TrEMBL record:
Pfam short name (any one): EamA
Annotated keywords: Membrane, Transmembrane, Transmembrane helix
Transmembrane segments: 40-61, 73-95, 101-119, 126-144, 150-166, 178-197, 209-229, 241-257, 263-281
Organism the protein comes from: Roseibium polysiphoniae
Name recorded for this polypeptide: DMT family transporter
SUPFAM superfamilies attached to this UniProt entry: Multidrug resistance efflux transporter EmrE
């Protein structure tokens, strides 16, 4: 696959990153007034309605049986776990820090592909993975004064995101993207409903409905475009564009909450990004791209 053929997939990745960050921002805003489960449920219910309309218009429901494929079910379960863990951490730590940890995802995907799918990964890329995870440790700082235990929760969410991405790559091409997105939204919304039972339900103001409606729209775009990017593009070319999320997160964190990452976080983030880019450059070189 030539680089020029990856243009639409790269564009999809950039749109997905922006959409997910704007969703995170609106959810973090609402967390001051609402419990996590309620936010996930309301956002998900709106998202399901929107996706159901899209699926009806595009004829997805005529091939609904394809959506019970094991890889679709595994992807949905992984997304549910990732959403719960990552949003739980996001509510309790700066958005730039959480997003920086999220940038370890391409490295984790590469390692998981080597371990579970027997993908060829040489010592150079294993070294890059190790160095990249060192960058994660600089952000988390276990055993030091700046340690934030919620960063470990965010990292656990990244592990499930890796399972989500690998299962996406394993899905047959005939399974419709909109249908996979709907399955994801249904699974996450059911999880939110269960969580809200234990957390309780709070009265919602108009602003809360507007914020979560906006979040639903953004996560809808995120679901669709991340699947398009992972299914249609050369992963070694497309995946590094995930790192655009860091710029979004730094800007939003500073402008909205006045958050300024410390030196260790910036160094750790830089290490993760550089090692991730090297890993994908190496993969592309070995594949003759």
């Amino acid at each position: 696959m030539e680089i020029r053929d990856n243009g639409p997939a790269i564009g999809a990745m950039l749109v997905a990153n922006a959409a997910f960050l704007l969703n995170d921002t609106l959810v973090k805003f609402s967390s001051d007034n609402l419990p996590l489960g309620q936010m996930i449920f309301v956002r998900g219910a709106i998202c399901i309605v929107l996706l159901a309309i899209v699926c009806q218009v595009t004829g997805v429901f005529r091939s609904a049986r394809l959506l019970i494929h094991p890889m679709v079910l595994l992807r949905t379960l992984a997304e549910v776990c990732a959403t719960l863990l990552y949003l739980t951490a996001l509510m309790r730590m700066p958005i730039a820090n959480a997003t920086s940890i999220l940038q370890a995802l391409p490295l984790v995907v590469t390692a998981a592909a080597a371990i579970f799918l027997k993908a060829p990964v040489g010592w150079r890329r294993w070294t890059a993975i190790g160095v990249g995870l060192t960058g994660v440790m600089l952000i988390i700082r276990p055993g030091f004064e700046g340690f934030d235990a919620w960063a470990l929760v965010a990292l656990a969410g990244v592990m499930f995101m890796a399972i989500r991405d690998l299962s996406t790559r394993q899905m047959p091409e005939e399974i419709p993207t909109y249908g996979v997105s709907l399955m994801t939204a249904v699974g996450v919304t059911i999880m939110g409903a269960g969580l809200s039972v234990s957390e309780g339900w709070q009265p919602m103001a108009l602003q809360d409905y507007l914020s979560l409606s906006g979040a639903a729209g953004f996560i809808l775009f995120g679901y669709i475009f991340i699947i398009l990017a992972m299914r249609s593009g050369d992963i070694s070319v497309v995946a590094p564009f995930r790192y655009s999320a860091v710029l979004w997160a730094l800007a939003i964190g500073f402008l909205v909450w006045g958050e300024v990452p410390d030196a260790m976080t910036i160094i750790g983030t830089t290490i993760i990004i550089l090692t991730g880019i090297y890993s994908f450059w190496r993969e592309r070189r070995l594949s003759g791209g």
